[in-house]
Amino acid sequence: MRLTVLSGPSGVGKGTVVAEVRRRHPEVWVSVSCTTRAPRPGETNGVEYHFVDVEEFTLMVKKGELLEHAMFAGHAYGTPRAPLEARLAEGVPCLLEIELQGARQVRAGIPDARFVFLAPPSWQELVRRLTGRGTEPPEVIERRLDRARTELAAESEFDAVVVNDDVTRAAARLVALMDTD
Ligand code: 5GP
């Protein structure tokens, strides 16, 4: 099985680590998810995400076109099934970067995939990253920290843990865990 699923708490830097994998390891195919959230500045449709509206997303779910899907911060996210299955059939090493609920769905459907948890160097560091911008009201920050606590507790469900102390090293460790030969 050449499928690796990277998950971990919000704020741990999954997106940055995956961007580093994309840059340094073109042999790894990174799945492009669908989301109903709006593109951020610098994001391009079809590159970081396929940006879709709620109707399109609902239709994809109904037709069974998503391998997994979940809500995160008020928006829907999901992994298109067909492109991933095509790459896996070709024997290409594939990487999904998804939140915890989605990772659990993939585990239920594809138990022999490799599940990697990206962990912060410490709880203090995660708190710093989640509160870093200092622009959010305290109750929003408290909600995020609550969620982070629950997400961190899921570490033991995973096959391997990569600590994101340094992006380059974390990306190298992740690729080393993937079946890329
Ligand atoms: P962001 O909006 O910051 O890009 O992503 C928010 C969260 O959604 C992150 O934790 C990211 O890993 C997760 N995510 C991105 N794509 C998917 C997906 O296809 N499925 C699931 N379940 N989560 C996703």
From TrEMBL:
One of its GO terms (cellular component) is cytosol. Belongs to the guanylate kinase family. One of its GO terms (molecular function) is ATP binding. InterPro entries: GK/Ca_channel_bsu (IPR008145), Guanylate_kin-like_dom (IPR008144), Guanylate_kinase (IPR017665), Guanylate_kinase_CS (IPR020590), P-loop_NTPase (IPR027417). Keywords: ATP-binding, Cytoplasm, Kinase, Nucleotide-binding, Transferase. Essential for recycling GMP and indirectly, cGMP. It is found in: Cytoplasm. Its EC number is 2.7.4.8. Residues 1-179 form the Guanylate kinase-like domain. It comes from Candidatus Protofrankia datiscae. It comes from the Bacteria. ATP binds at G8, P9, S10, G11, V12, G13, K14, G15. Its main location: cytoplasm. This is Guanylate kinase.
